[in-house]
Fold these 2 entries.
Entry 1:
Amino acid sequence: MAEDLAAAFELSDQLVSWSVERGAEQLPTLEGRNGRLALLENSLVKLLRKSEGQPPLERNAWRIKLALAEVALAADKPGVARERMKEVLSEASATDEATVQRLARARVLVCLLGSEDPEVGVTPGELSETETVLASLPAEARETRRLKSALKMAEARMQFREGDGNSALDSYRSALPRNDGALRRAAVTGSPAHLEGPGLHLRGPGGPGGGRGRCRDPPS
């Protein structure tokens, strides 16, 4: 039974990834994204309720909560995702590399999307804790470098909103080292920017203060 449950959770993880991704190369694109996310969230909530009182399922309830956090992130609801991740991190027991990386990715995205929303925001403590988690991942792995770049982007946005333009520019340079000139012009002029670099894609008005950050693969 334990093996069957493990296989079932592995399959459900793959299906969740398929559902929330916005165009991963290895996954097909599903249509009707918003409706799909709502349907997926409802299904996960029902599954979480059914797991109550069933020890084999209750022990893995954090996996369902992690999936719910990922759905919230996919729906651009970082505040909801942050609350769900608090429960996940207090219950998660897996230590395999794939799960640790998945947890780290969710934490980075909470910071990144939170930094875009003034009502949610991101704190230095949250950034520091997430950076510590990333330090436990393989340093040269492409995904690790993407996540570190994304976290630096979140830090830069926080610094910019706090009025520390110099630190924000340094953080942007660290996240996007190939775009120093464009970043400097965007920071000084506040003009619309379309910036690309290893690990992230930023598009939006207002230079460092605006735009939606998305992870891209850095060069190998």
Entry 2:
Amino acid sequence: MKPNGLLTKSVNDDDLQGILNLQPILDWNIAELSNDSVWDAVELPWEYEDAEEIFVLSEVWEYAGANNLMPEQVVKLVVIRHRQRGDIYGFKMKIAPDLDYMLDSGDNLRINKYLVRDSDLSGIVIFCSLDDRFINGWRYMDGVIQGKLVPANVEDAGTRATLSGTRSEDWHIVLDEIVIVGYGPKGLMHANMYTQENGYLVFPADEMERPGGVDTSGPVVDTYGGSGNSDNDSSGDILLPVPLDGIINSHILSPLQLGKLEKAQKELINEGCMQETLYNALVSNNVKLDFGMYANPTETSAPANYDPRERSIKFKDNSSITKDNLKEEFFHAWQDSYYSGGIWQYRETGKVNVEFEAKVFKDIIESPDATCCWAFGDVENLPENLSTEYGLWIYGIRESSISLQDADYRKWLNLYNQYNTEYSSPMHQNLSTPNAIRSLINQSDCY
């Protein structure tokens, strides 16, 4: 299947290892947003600091070599979200124009997006995982899909896809495409590129396939937040700083973890009125947080932790990225913003004040008939009559914020300090009343 006169430099094992270690430079400031009735999409160039990725048809490669040019192509990161289900998928999209399109309409190549293709596009579009495993692809001619792409050599294509059957003469699409793929140092034109050839067969699309789109049911698509993910998802090998609206400043999370974070955040906001008020208060006060995972968690590590020094939230493991853990850490971030000088000053004297207010907040924002309670939930030696009395106090506040009286609050703060040895500390007078909670209540119309 090699075109006549094509000379390529094969990728050896050392070269391949260097390629696999390349980290993309993703500039979210130039990300483009689009949507249709089904999907929201964000996309941006997938580029490297010191290397060029090659993904071109063989005729374009030969033309570029003869004229000492870099061939035209598009390689981008795409993240799509289903507008009803909320499922999020991340993948690479690669476009290789044919020679006529490149020469006649090359300036239009960049207008091709995931949801919209140029009406004159001729060439191929493929989708692959973030580590370059083939998902699916399409052959275009004058803006019309001619068929779907199937790798002719599964091993060369680096895909798990298999060809179910052989090409038959009665199939009306029998085109072959040879694609040159590889990498080379930035600044070079055609020489010294490390390349190999991938062959594709073009077959008619199945009736159930969405022509032109990515196959989200495939085994190698990177899922950010839908159903069916496990904590051991292999997509965690590549880190993507997906820009989410609101309070996320930066993160070092895998796509799976980022999807869980977004899901937890969405569930928290939709859970209730005070939860939404908490989130909106953080946003309106321009609170920006960094997110990550514990470096060396142990069995006794807390599921999540807010660090006021870094304004960051870290999680113990993937299963800890939940709305309930996010709820408490978001409230600590609110305390840090609300109280003058932040809460790091109370890390010794006043630690119990900070923790108790967060637990009370979690307890009172539950639905009126929800099980109680978070504050004394892990205390084994709390007398039953006190547990019942605290529950009645919380149920009363859920019904009416008037029940949140300072005297009662100080009583339960003292008892919490007495019985909860994990957070016991000298108390600080400045935090003896629930002012951060009251501020949120006053900002809301929840009561």
